[in-house]
């Protein structure tokens, strides 16, 4: 269990603040885009150079508020084109949007445990694609996270918390974007390849307007500019932080939950039943902000090994999360082994693959793992010579890291924390966390 990290203060750059204001003023939302592997990227009209104001005014000229907003809009529009452009990848077939589908809460568009990539589009990684929505509230990674004075006793150590990836190794969206672009089993590109693609892209004039001609002369500078534009695109609240679920409407008094949804919410919050809210915070912050449905803490829960992943054919390989192999700064720190960041449950009902290794493909299976892991371990782990091989994806020397709080506080012979009817109610509640409820209600009334 981790404490609530929602009241920490971020230092926002001007572009981030202006992006929020620009969206409030009506920045065009993303619609109808498709960048599946092999599909052509959607082309967004680019304003000709002669018709648009520069995205960034010369340093000697102070910018007006209107110029700042216009620059942010242009940067976000450029980032959108980059996000859907498969030519940035080594194969020329994989865009950011191929794995982070706008129609699936910017998460995976299918039920694959991991997506295929690489130069030949056949390489598999070993982690499920996370959603890119609701990253704004995640704090930078800290080994010892303490609540602010506004929310509680700062002496309370919530443990390792934060970071934007499963292992918490990066803290900013531009740093996060660098990972898939250069990963050999994802987009498998490089600064030189990305720069070459940008120079040949239909949006190159927009790129020059945003960053200047000199940037394109240098591969690394071009690559860094691409990361900045992708960051600007993901700073649009209407797309990435909309808070338009039925539960948000319920908290605002604009919707009523069904009896099943209300029962599910109660079970979700009950420390003696689901105890989900101990990590997936469901209440508004003390400042009145919407719940994030995560405390963003890193935790080990002993998820079963996904034997369908090619990398797991090697019995010596383990994905140890915060202590490696992708993250290297905590290598050798045993207390971090097996820990992965708690994801937000917003839009979780739209997913078809769950946990860091994609081992499960339905919320029903996820819920049964939570409530029966310690009661019926044989349902989840291999049985060899009559003995259950518990926690088979984590070396035994790290088992002390595994969470034992409810509902993981039971033993064989005990009753599960939730029965099948209660599991259905919790899932009914989880479905209220899907964005678009207000939009759907508006369309239905027309």
Automatic annotation (TrEMBL):
Any single Gene Ontology cellular-component annotation: cell envelope
Residue segments, region Disordered: 145-167
Keywords from the UniProt entry: Heme, Iron, Metal-binding, Oxidoreductase, Peroxidase, Signal
Domain of life of the source: Bacteria
Signal peptide: 1-31
Subcellular locations according to the entry: Cell envelope
Pfam hit, one: CCP_MauG
Protein's UniProt name: Cytochrome-c peroxidase
Organism per entry: Burkholderia ubonensis
């Amino acid at each position: 269990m981790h404490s609530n990290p929602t009241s920490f203060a971020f230092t926002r750059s001007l572009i981030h603040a202006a992006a929020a204001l620009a969206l409030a003023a009506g920045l065009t939302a993303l619609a109808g885009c498709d960048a599946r592997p092999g599909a052509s990227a959607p082309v967004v009209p680019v304003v000709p150079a002669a018709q648009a104001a520069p995205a960034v005014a010369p340093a000697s000229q102070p910018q007006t508020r209107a110029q700042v907003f216009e620059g942010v809009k242009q940067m976000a529009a450029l980032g959108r084109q980059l996000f859907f452009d498969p030519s940035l990848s080594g194969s020329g077939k994989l865009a950011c949007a191929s794995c982070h589908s706008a129609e699936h809460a910017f998460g995976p568009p299918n039920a694959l445990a991991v997506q295929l990539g690489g130069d030949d589009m056949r390489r598999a990684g070993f982690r499920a694609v996370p959603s890119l929505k609701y990253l704004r509230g995640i704090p930078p990674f800290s080994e010892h996270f303490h609540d602010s004075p506004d929310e509680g006793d700062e002496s309370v150590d919530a443990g390792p918390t934060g970071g934007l990836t499963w292992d918490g190794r990066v803290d900013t969206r531009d740093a996060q974007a660098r990972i898939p672009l250069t990963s050999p089993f994802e987009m498998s590109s490089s600064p030189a390849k990305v720069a070459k693609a940008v120079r040949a892209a239909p949006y190159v004039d927009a790129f020059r307007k945003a960053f200047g001609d000199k940037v394109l002369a240098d591969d690394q500078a071009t690559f860094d500019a691409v990361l900045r534009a992708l960051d600007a695109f993901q700073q649009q609240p209407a797309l990435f932080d909309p808070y338009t679920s039925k539960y948000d409407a319920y908290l605002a008094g604009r919707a009523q939950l069904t009896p099943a949804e209300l029962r599910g919410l109660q079970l979700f919050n009950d420390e003696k039943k689901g105890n989900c809210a101990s990590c997936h915070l469901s209440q508004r912050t003390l400042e009145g902000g919407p719940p994030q449905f995560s405390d963003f803490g890193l935790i080990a829960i002993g998820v079963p090994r996904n034997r369908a992943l090619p990398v797991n054919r090697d019995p010596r390989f383990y994905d140890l999360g915060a202590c490696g192999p992708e993250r290297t700064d905590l290598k050798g720190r045993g207390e971090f082994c097996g820990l992965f960041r708690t994801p937000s449950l917003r839009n979780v009902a739209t997913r078809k693959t769950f946990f860091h290794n994609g081992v499960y493909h339905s919320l029903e299976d996820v819920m049964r793992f939570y409530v029966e892991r310690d009661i019926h371990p044989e349902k989840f782990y291999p049985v060899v010579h009559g003995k259950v091989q518990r926690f088979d994806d984590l070396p035994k020397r790290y088992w002390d890291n595994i969470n034992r709080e409810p509902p993981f506080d039971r033993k064989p012979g005990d009753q599960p924390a939730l029965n099948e009817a209660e599991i259905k109610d919790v899932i009914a509640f989880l479905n209220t966390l899907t964005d678009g409820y207000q939009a759907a209600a508006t369309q239905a009334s027309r």
